[in-house]
Design brief:
The protein is 31% helix and 16% strand. The chain is built from eleven helices and twelve strands. Helix 1 runs parallel beside helix 10 and helix 9 runs parallel beside helix 10 (258-275). The N and C termini lie far apart (59 Å).
């Protein structure tokens, strides 16, 4: 059975509001000042955590500008760039990490990162990060998952593009090498992604199959998909974050702006509150309203012995008379006493 997971001072799980992660990625546009402003805006938006990505172009790929190392997909945001050039543009300089993490602590944010190779894990361990994220494109990088697992810290694993067998490999390796706290993130690895491809019904299936907590890493426009995920059990929501999409950060097209992130934090909390429990009948706050339900009332003055007819009773508000289900039962019966128009009908009034 899944259980609460603790990251820094926060408990994450179904009994707690969704844990919201703002992903900075390359939206700092190569400016440390902008990176710090993103952290500040994230805190004001109400998120729980800010996440970085820790890599260099050399730890990601080879400096080759042709063939499979060149992005020529006509639908890609990054068409016309080599992989190496893209990562050179998007990476967060490692010397910035300590300063960004420190600013997050000052702002009351949890700060952690996605390492993309083993050297990044060693570097992040030196900064004492409280958790690690494995990106979708790395969920088959079992040596990296093994390295992260040996730290004993919580592991957040994006599931984008992975088969059940690949996810099973990743989870088994993580557990084998000491990771006790794993959160899976349902993810569609296209940028931006289409809500039609979100397949959020996978969330409860993942939870049941792996007996792990599950969240979502969402790249769709707006916040609708993220909010919907809460109703299916998502306990964590990760969204890319930017100060303004018009600033043209490498990931800005599918990133939320501060006002949107604030709304996500508010509405995901409301969605979580609304889950409640299986319940029928009036809630405590509805009990006072039950008097406004319909019931049977005398609709004309009657004398003892008169027949009850459709003209003499009506199904109206308020709800102080017999329930409407007795309408056919009382029809044609005789009234047992003199009654005035506007009297709620009771069983004692019927012969």
């Amino acid at each position: 059975m899944s259980r609460d997971i603790k990251i820094a001072d926060s408990l994450i799980g179904g009994k707690h509001p969704p844990f919201i992660v703002a992903e900075m990625s390359g939206n700092h546009n190569r400016s440390i000042d902008r990176a710090l402003k993103i952290a500040e805006a994230a805190a004001l938006s109400g998120v729980n955590a800010l996440k970085l990505q820790t890599y260099t172009a050399d730890t990601m790929t080879l400096n080759i500008k042709k063939d499979e190392f060149y992005i020529d997909d006509s639908e890609s945001l990054w068409k016309g760039k080599s992989l190496y050039a893209l990562y050179e543009e998007a990476f967060t300089p490692w010397e910035w990490h300590a300063r960004i993490f420190e600013r997050c602590r000052e702002l009351g944010l949890i700060a952690f990162s996605t390492p993309f190779d083993e050297t990044a894990v060693d570097f992040l361990e030196g900064l004492d990060v409280p958790a690690y994220k494995i990106a979708s494109f790395e969920n088959n990088h079992l040596p990296l998952i093994k390295k992260v697992a040996t730290t004993g810290k919580p592991l957040i694993l994006s599931t984008g593009m992975a088969s059940v067998a690949e996810l099973d490999d990743a989870v088994r390796i993580a557990k084998k090498y000491g990771c006790r706290d794993i959160i899976l993130l349902k993810c569609t690895s296209s940028y931006p992604s289409d809500p039609l491809a979100a397949n959020l019904r996978t969330i409860p299936h993942l939870k049941e199959m792996f007996d792990l907590e599950v969240g979502v890493s969402d790249h769709t426009p707006g916040i609708g998909v993220s909010i919907a995920s809460v109703s299916l059990g998502a306990i964590m929501i990760e969204r890319h974050f930017t100060l303004s999409r018009s600033d043209n950060g490498v990931d800005s097209v599918f990133s939320l702006e501060p006002s949107e992130m604030k709304m996500l934090c508010q509405e995901s909390f409301r969605a979580w509150q609304a889950l409640g429990k299986v319940h029928y009948g009036p809630t405590e706050k509805e009990k006072s309203s039950t008097r406004f339900k319909r019931s049977l009332y005398i609709s004309k003055d009657l004398q003892r012995g008169d027949l009850i007819t459709p003209e003499s009773i009506r199904v109206i508000r308020p709800g102080n008379g017999l329930p409407p289900k007795y309408y056919d039962l009382v029809m044609g019966k005789r009234i047992s006493r003199d009654v005035k128009k506007g009297t709620p009908l009771s069983m004692e009034d019927i012969n």
